[in-house]
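Can't paste images in this forum, so I'm doing it all in text. The chain is below; anyone willing to post the predicted structure tokens underneath?
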Amino acid sequence: MGLKRNISKTYDDRDGEPFATPEDAWIWYSQCQRARDDGARFREGIGAVARPCAPDDIAREVRRLVQRRVLGRAHLRVLTLFGGESGVAVGDGGGADRLWREALGRLEAPLRAKGIVA
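Text version of the structure:
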């Protein structure tokens, strides 16, 4: 017999408003992760806008794309740098900017399929 898991859901029961772009979804995920790293705990209904997913749903998609070798280490480094540290996507006009666009482009279809991005 399997163990019962006592995990409450971390998403909102209100109808979720999808993100306009994969960039918006990634920035939101990064801000949520940074808050979690600082000790925040997520509860339903505390955000001004309900989202159609939990932050971990976006992380799982990125992990899945890495495992399938759709995203590489360079993509992850750029996603972490632009989305995580600064909270905004500011490219250098060179290779990092290209990697940022590639990573978000590759993430777009799976996020759209799940209704996370409109």
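The mean pLDDT is 81. Helices lie at 22-37, 55-67, 73-85, 95-113.
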